[in-house]
Specification:
The structure is a homodimer of 314-residue chains. Chain A is an alpha/beta fold and 314 residues long. In chain A, the strands form 4 sheets. In chain A, strands 5-2-1-9-10-13-14 form a 7-stranded parallel sheet, sandwiched between helices. Chain A has a 3-stranded antiparallel sheet with strand order 7-6-8. Chain A has a two-stranded antiparallel sheet with strand order 3-4. In chain A, β11 and β12 form a beta hairpin. In chain A, α1 runs parallel beside α2 and α1 crosses α12. Chains A and B meet through α3 and α4 of A and α3 and α4 of B.
Chain lengths: 314, 314
Amino acid sequence: MAMSEKITVLTGGVGGAKLALGLANLQPPPQLAFIVNTGDDFWHLGLKICPDIDTLIYTLSGAVDPRQGWGIADDSAHVLDSLKRRYAFKAWFKLGDQDLAMHLLRTQAMREQVSLTDFTSSIARRLGIEAAILPMCDAEIPTTILTREHGELSFQDYFVKQRWQPAIQQIRYNVDKEARLSEVVREALTSADMILIAPSNPWLSIAPILAVPGLLDLLESLSVPKVAISPLVGGDAVKGPTAKIMREMGLEVSARAVARSYAGVIDGFVDDLRNPVFQLDWLRATRRDTLMTSLERKVALARDALDWARGWRA
Amino acid sequence: MAMSEKITVLTGGVGGAKLALGLANLQPPPQLAFIVNTGDDFWHLGLKICPDIDTLIYTLSGAVDPRQGWGIADDSAHVLDSLKRRYAFKAWFKLGDQDLAMHLLRTQAMREQVSLTDFTSSIARRLGIEAAILPMCDAEIPTTILTREHGELSFQDYFVKQRWQPAIQQIRYNVDKEARLSEVVREALTSADMILIAPSNPWLSIAPILAVPGLLDLLESLSVPKVAISPLVGGDAVKGPTAKIMREMGLEVSARAVARSYAGVIDGFVDDLRNPVFQLDWLRATRRDTLMTSLERKVALARDALDWARGWRA
């Protein structure tokens, strides 16, 4: 089974990309498919930008800026500087020059009616990525954030411009009538030997994927191990607003609350050693060091999670 | 009259921009409008690119690369390098990083249904340009080049990719049914005290302007001085394929043949001292050094041309 084992992962950006890199470096190599959140996607300066897809592609192709975990290492910003300096452009979203190459190619493809799925697959192959990088949906399903201070904000307005500071009243996954589960996403789920949920933000990164019409029903119908990895370490997010959002939504800030939010979706949970122990009668759980601060630790976590889930299915 | 004198110029790129800079530096300053060729405009990498407008804007705002006469001085090319290196993009058209800022802003405006006229006017104002920079038309009127070797080529394919080497059989100005003379272009012509034709390529830069529906009739109806400046100096083009195209079209390579191609459009001609003397009974002509190798010479040519035409109208 190991040689052809198929692992399909639901993932957002930076945190998910770390796990993805661990999985991609496993020996023997599993057959990997990543179903990536596109709820953060937006149009900016006439460009179609897919932050989570880009983070995953840059990470798996080795181009990523290792300090920030997103963008391209040693990128310059001459275009953005020129926009600011010469045209007084309000630059609240970072656009590196090398990063712009991706946005330009993608935007051109979108304008030529190439699907996001086809564009992503072709660009990932060109960069030598063997895993399948699958946008959760070809239709746009923009996440918006309802706040008391500012009303309804587009995702990047909330996340980047406002630095996720406004308190969230509600998160909206704006599913269009046209949105359909793509065939490649369906196939990646139905053919998987195991499904993982990356340690990404459950409400901003994973929930948008689960909002794709038909995806949740399909997931629930599958009998393979479905394992989430805790996005909380020692009761807080490694990075980003997971804990803050949980507080604002009136939830207990705990791995248990995260696991409960995945009820019906997962049957296994890899918790972090630093979190308080909990039990849920419908959930198998294991405890590991989930901090992925080096390639070795990324690979170790990926290997341990897979070994563990294989074991309890055996 | 001098304080409010209105000069309207039909112009292409590099050569016309030199005259434009001379005119813009006249004292007292005339009220200037430039009707700019957009037959070279094209979509590339999903971007709307207007080479002649950009050359004029960069020249008048002082950003231009003085060596090439187009593009921005000291521009880098990190985006293009990334496209080539990472994505094997075939980069036959130079796209500087600072130049890309303009293309991005314009493309966004076009996608938002802003007219090229409005976008150009707004960006020129932002860059501190007092002259009106008027695209010849808001509709696209792409010039195409019929060649024996390659069949019909888009303009930039002929001009940049093939470096204007293929022999021209025919030049086509592809006027769409929707193309209309814009109100600002009409106004710039009807209100002008004098109309100049810049020393741009008559067939590739000026003829596309004259092909805008209604423009030629309007020009012919105006009784103000209409003066062309010779694009040939010493029997050859200062830069570019003017002489080569004349040969390929079976024309004598001479200022006289250029002037005759403007029959019905102009009534005055500023010839270069180095060209053979000629006479046409319908045309007033004067002879000057038209080489604009310094700002002083640009200003001198502009001043001399205006003084001369004012004189013979008095």
